[in-house]
Specification:
This protein is an alpha+beta fold. 48% of the residues lie in helices and 14% in strands. It folds into two domains: 74 residues, Butyryl-CoA Dehydrogenase, subunit A, domain 2; 143 residues, Butyryl-CoA Dehydrogenase, subunit A, domain 3. The protein contains seven helices and eight strands, in the order ββαββββααββαααα. It has a three-stranded antiparallel beta sheet, with no helix packed on it.
């Protein structure tokens, strides 16, 4: 059985397999499997709380021979896929930033038009403070994202570190932005009709997309101190 993103609805899913004793980097192969291949079963398509534009599911391979010409990479698939890891984190952070911008725009529109206590919400100090906090977090994410993207383009020595940093930073900061948006809408924030709760759900998914928060932190330390940092998995 394999867990895969987008494969449950793909016409030609891509999958990987591992060769015993060779490890992940040297022993992983990838191949294409047409949807109608005998032995391939889509076991389930998982329901997620947010970011439902990219589904996730489980594929089952049972007595399923694969033609040799379907092989994409043999024994070094993960290593070859590594060229997409850095841009992938840039893309995730950029999508995350988009969620934050949407949250800010929705909140700004609401507080400038909704009246509470005889005046529009934006005239209340507590509301203004939250708006300023949201805008500052968004610009901080944008700045780090631009720096990380430039580092990837330049193949800079710190590109790996910056990519993990921006993925981590964006996921935590934008979630806070989405939380502010939800709370600035008051009771309306949790009403499905307003769509604000969807923003919050989408933001929460990025904490676990393309590495969890803690895994990202470990990768940052390992890239900054490769000679002394622990492996954090397996034997030292």
């Amino acid at each position: 059985m394999a867990a895969s993103s987008s494969s449950p609805t793909a016409t030609t899913p891509a999958s990987t397999s591992s060769t015993p004793k060779l490890g992940m980097l040297q022993g992983t192969s990838s191949f294409l499997v047409p949807r109608d291949t005998p032995g391939l079963t889509v076991a389930r398509c998982n329901e997620t709380m947010g970011c439902r534009f990219m589904n996730n599911g489980e594929l089952v391979f049972e007595d399923m021979p694969v033609p040799e010409d379907h092989l994409l990479a043999e024994n070094d698939a993960l290593g070859k896929a590594g060229v997409y890891f850095r841009p992938g984190k840039i893309i995730q952070a950029a999508k995350n930033l988009g969620v934050g911008v949407h949250a800010f725009e929705a909140a700004a529109e609401y507080v400038q038009n909704y009246v509470q206590g005889g005046r529009t919400l934006i005239k209340h100090q507590a509301v203004a403070l939250r708006l300023a906090d949201m805008a500052t977090r968004i610009e901080a994410v944008r700045a780090l994202l631009e720096r990380a993207a430039q580092a990837v383009d330049d193949d800079a020595p710190d590109a790996e570190t910056l990519c993990n940093m921006v993925k981590l930073f964006a996921s935590e900061e934008i979630l806070k932005v989405a939380q502010h948006c939800l709370e600035l809408h008051g009771g309306n924030g949790v009403m499905l009709d307003f769509g604000v709760e969807k923003i919050f759900r989408d933001a929460a998914i990025f904490l676990h997309m393309d590495a969890t928060v803690d895994i990202s932190k470990l990768k940052i330390v390992k890239s900054m101190f490769p000679a002394t940092a622990g492996t954090y998995a397996g034997p030292e």
